[in-house]
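Q: I'm writing a short methods note and want an example of a predicted protein-small molecule complex. Could you take the sequence and the SMILES for S-adenosylmethionine and return the bound structure as tokens? Please keep the output block clean; save any remarks for afterwards.
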Amino acid sequence: MSSSRRSERSPLRSMAAEVTCKFRLIEGQFLSMLLRIRNPEKTLELGVFTGYSLLNTALALPTAGKLGNQIMGRLTIRFQITAIDKDREAHETGLPFIVKAGAEHKINYINSNAISVLEQMLTNGDELFDFAFVEADKPNYIHYHERLMKLVKIGGLIAYDYTLWYGSVAVDEEKVHEDLKEDRSVIMNLNTYLASDSRIEISQISIGDCVTLCRRLIYLNA
Ligand SMILES: C[S@@+](CC[C@H](N)C(=O)[O-])C[C@H]1O[C@@H](n2cnc3c(N)ncnc32)[C@H](O)[C@@H]1O
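A: Understood, no commentary inside the block.
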């Protein structure tokens, strides 16, 4: 892209950045409120980046029980959030803020590809989660969903972020910016998939760029 084209687009980009910040703030408040209402013990986050939603989650979780049980005289830490991301550098950038907020001990950060960690959890038969927040690579959302259907408790919640994809899913394709087109079609497929999945009930919350909440029902399709 030429420098003149770049500078032409910069006001739009800075406006988009400002809108995104506002989205994120409102979404963070929503996430905190949801967690305080649900009071989950064990949560999962796919896609941490610098940890904005992770910090919101950590601060919303109850303090009681953050340190686990006394087992044979030893204090074992029961992590309440398992947070997975392949970008360690981003996590390390945000980590000082998590430490400053006194929330680090609630987090079990795993630097890895999310699918392989979920597969490992299924193989190990790990304890199920009460809540999962998904904001990693959009093309894998459907693959995450299939695994989360087995890793989140019946009655537990899965939240998928960005399910309006900057509003593009509601706009004719020819009017959509080139940069958004690929993930728009991925998100449209996901939305159709979730809407027809009888193992869950869903609610698309028009907050930030939309969060789809899925409550796991009885596992119908064995
Ligand atoms: C939009 S950011 C997440 C934002 C974060 N939840 C927040 O509140 O700031 C997406 C993150 O997903 C991570 N990611 C993308 N694909 C992934 C994968 N296959 N496995 C693990 N992490 C992945 C990226 O490294 C990136 O940090």
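A: Remarks, as requested: The pocket of S-adenosylmethionine is lined by residues 47-50, 52-53, 84-87, 90, 113-114, 135-137, 140 (CB under 6 Å). The longest helix spans residues 3-38.
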